[in-house]
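Field notebook, page 696. I keep forgetting to write these up properly, so this time I am using the form the group agreed on. The chain and the ligand, pyridoxal-5'-phosphate, are recorded exactly as supplied. Prediction of the bound pose follows.
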Amino acid sequence: MKKVVLFNVGPAIPAELGFLETLANNLWWCWNSDAIELFRRIDPRLWTQTGHNPIVFLNSLPQKKLQALTNDDGFLTHLQQITDRFDAEVLHGRDGKEAVPPRDAVAYFSMEYGIHESVRLYSGGLGCLAGDHLKAASDINTPLVAVGLLYRQGYFQQYLNKDGWQQEAYPENQFHHLPIRKACHADKNQVIISIKLPEGPLKAAIWQLDVGRVPVYLLDTNIPDNPPDLRKITCHLYEGDRKCRLRQELLLGVGGFKALIALGYEPPVCHMNEGHAAFLSLARIGHLVNDLGISLPAALEIMPRTDVFTTHTPVPAGNEAFSVELLRPHLAALHADIAVDPEEVIRWGQSPNSGNGHEFQMTILGLRMAQFCNGVSRLHGVVARKMWTHLWPDKPEDEIPISHITNGVHVSSWLSPDNLALFDRYLGPGWWDNPGTDEILDRIVLIPNEELWRAHELGRSRLVRAARELGEKQYNARNATKAEVAQMRTVLRHDVLTIGFARRFAAYKRANLLLKDPARFEALLTNKDRPIQIIFAGKAHPADDVGKELIRQLVVFAHRPAVRQRIVFLEDYDIQLARYLVQGVDVWLNTPRRPQEASGTSGMKACVNGALHLSCLDGWWDEGYSPDCGWAIGHGEDYENAEYQDAVESQALYNLLENEVAPSFYDRQEGDLSSVWLEMMKMSLRQHLANSPLAA
Ligand SMILES: *Cc1c(COP(=O)(O)O)cnc(C)c1O
């Protein structure tokens, strides 16, 4: 990866439109529909072609077009409205001047951030949660600064070969296409931090990405100051090479904390989003001792009281561990910076009864470093307390200091434009600020059925169209036959009960549960009076052949002539595809093997758009389910035998689809609308708007 000098060859933005550049450089626009519309209306086709990336979009506009806008009164009025809102919501009415977070803002550390599809610094749920968290913090004006890594390539792009086997591509992130700028000292020089590795210093340049009022500071090691092998450290998200991965996490935690100090922050509280970020605690201890002159015993008292740790999964592969042999020399190199003896740190990352084990676990370090620890749903809290009991041998399980905060979603990032207009109209102007009050929620039943259904059908139609377009493109790229490509152009129907299933293809999520009895599945899809269609999407981890095999099986099934019109697998699940899906499906399906789904959030995104949730009682659904607003697969049983569990739960799922879901959907009286379904939609909306305040 060589460094290239970049020239801006785009058009000059006329002075009257200067705010467009400001807007393009703060991701605030991506959750404000009026701001999105400001870009889109300039040239809707180009907006799509440029991947909803306003920087690329503005650079691609002909000068003539921009000039014409300066005489377009309607556009200028719209521009002024957005300018005023941006000023009030982001700049605190500081009249165009940047609002700087206070020195004592809370710091949030995460390996990934899923904010918008045009900023590929995420892989999935963990990142989307972090992104939603930042947006919510900006909305409610909570002083927060965030820290992450700036990946040259990010996570992989997925495509399938002819046989349905997943392939991975790693396109480069073009930094000049990202809304980032150099984070600078007062003297205007970019902040460069350095951490010690066994073979010498590792340096990182700091960039700033603005998410409304929240700055995200991103570390980049691809700079000439580093030798070539160290420059690669921030190349891939979730790098497979263990040494590189360890260095990424040391960089995030220790380097990230140093960056905040270099930028003038003194965070009173730090949040570790998952174990990857846990090394930040070591940097905090070092800072308290070395810079603030506090004794080590006192630092060890202060630090955990002001650290927060969120654990996100009970699945072992999700809980990062490093070999002690790999870690030890790295801690030795950092000794002066972290002020703690390496052997002591190694003990912090191990279970007390593991003796001198060879594994160092990042989750254990996180749990030890923070007095406030949480799982991400009520059930996950229970599971996590049980899972980590061995760290507190003298405490009973229910006193293990891990509580739970159920995940949430940032509603305005996921709500369809039609639902937004509907809610604005019927829930009253204040719904946005107080979505959970009874007064607002009571108005949901007053939304006329026809209008709710119309808004929902628009979302479904957009999904069908997007699926056809994406499908056609993907089949073309796969060198499919002409007939296959043509078939994708008409796949799915606009009026058929539509189910969405999209998530990482990990074995425990059981994407193939519906394939247990292929004949029965086929019969459900092709039922003459009550057909069902289903859209699948999701990536398998590059090293996970079991997950890739699940994708292949689905693709093979989808080629059966009888079901071709009713089932599609769409490649490269990302935030854009997620938006189409959660805004367009009638039912969101989730089939995890309880209790391995810590929370899950995509179902919540679908539910705020009026979809109904159909899931095993795992993750958030274990506490969210009620029979008047969705369906439960099984009764929350825990099974010893996975094969038996799959057999029982697949039959339960077929039965629900056949006897409850499809009959309710197609129960059309009253001028073609299903009042049963609409009533459930309203109950579900009520529950999810109540439980999804702006704060994620
Ligand atoms: C919301 C979201 C996820 C999270 O999915 P869950 O499996 O429900 O946790 C993953 N990927 C994308 C692109 C998302 O938008």
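OBSERVATIONS:
- The pocket of pyridoxal-5'-phosphate is lined by residues 124-125, 128, 503, 573-575, 578, 600-602, 605 (CB under 6 Å).
- Residues 449-477 form the longest helix (29 residues).
FOLLOW-UP: compare against the apo run.
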